[in-house]
Write a structure and sequence with these properties.
With 234 residues, the chain is of the alpha+beta class. It is built from seven helices and eight strands, in the order H-H-H-E-E-H-E-E-E-H-H-E-E-E-H. The longest helix is centred in the middle third of the chain and has 31 residues.
Length: 234
């Protein structure tokens, strides 16, 4: 098959995605519902193309077609917007807690959330020690048997039976990295829904089981206060 023919579907897919996003971002603050003609004016796309793209957007509840033929943003667009807003509220709540924990423990404090079969470091406050964790916000790690992954797995499952005998905080050493230890607590929101894991991590030679035991009350207290601020009834 000629190289040009192999490339064509990919280019068409990108162009199609661009047109979909052009329609979706044509809606502005203050809009209720838009006529097809207004969408055509704002996007510079022909009406037949807009109608075809809106069918795809309707499947994902991103756009809704009203009985009079006008279009408005759908419930999924509202959900994405609320997630975006929540992310800022979460950062405002979590980061000061991490900075305080890092300053008091002299270890790295981090906040993780689950993304499928991996865990994502969302926020982090570094240890002042030169020897410290090298995970950065945005980095992904496996859902293994480490303390952080255990918290995200056990309490994200929402099965009380699996959580009954769990001693918190959870401590592990040498799981993801043979030289790293972690101590982790779950963070809950409304309806006791798991939001993420609050953790202290450091070199296993420094964050020993004994040292982790000394940090347990501090981490537990920080996690409970943060959960309460995020709407959990503890």
């Amino acid at each position: 098959m000629p190289k040009e023919a192999r490339k064509k579907p990919k280019l068409e897919g990108v162009a199609s995605a661009d047109r979909v996003l052009t329609v979706l971002t044509a809606f502005r603050r203050g809009d209720d519902a838009l006529e097809l003609s207004e969408l055509a004016r704002r996007t510079a796309l022909v009406k037949s193309t807009i109608m075809r793209l809106c069918i795809s957007l309707e499947k994902f509840d991103l756009v809704e077609r009203l009985d009079d033929g006008r279009y408005r943003l759908g419930v999924e667009a509202a959900r994405i917007g609320s997630v975006y807003q929540q992310s800022f509220a979460l950062e405002e709540r979590v980061v000061p807690v991490l900075e305080r924990l890092a300053a008091e423990s002299l270890e790295t404090a981090s906040f993780y959330i689950r993304r499928g079969n991996q865990r994502l470091c969302l926020f982090r406050a570094d240890s002042p020690h030169p020897l410290r964790m090298n995970v950065r916000p945005g980095d992904m790690r496996p859902m293994d048997d480490s303390a952080i992954a255990q918290v995200l797995s056990l309490f994200g499952d929402r099965s009380p039976a699996k959580q009954t005998d769990v001693r918190l905080p959870i401590y592990t050493s040498g799981i993801t990295d043979p030289h790293v230890a972690s101590l982790a607590m779950p963070i809950f929101g409304t309806e006791r829904r798991l939001i993420g894991a609050l953790a202290l991590s450091g070199p296993s030679s420094r964050l020993t089981a004994e040292q982790a035991g000394a940090f347990e009350p501090k981490l537990r207290d920080a996690a409970e206060r943060l959960s309460s601020e995020l709407g959990a009834q503890l």
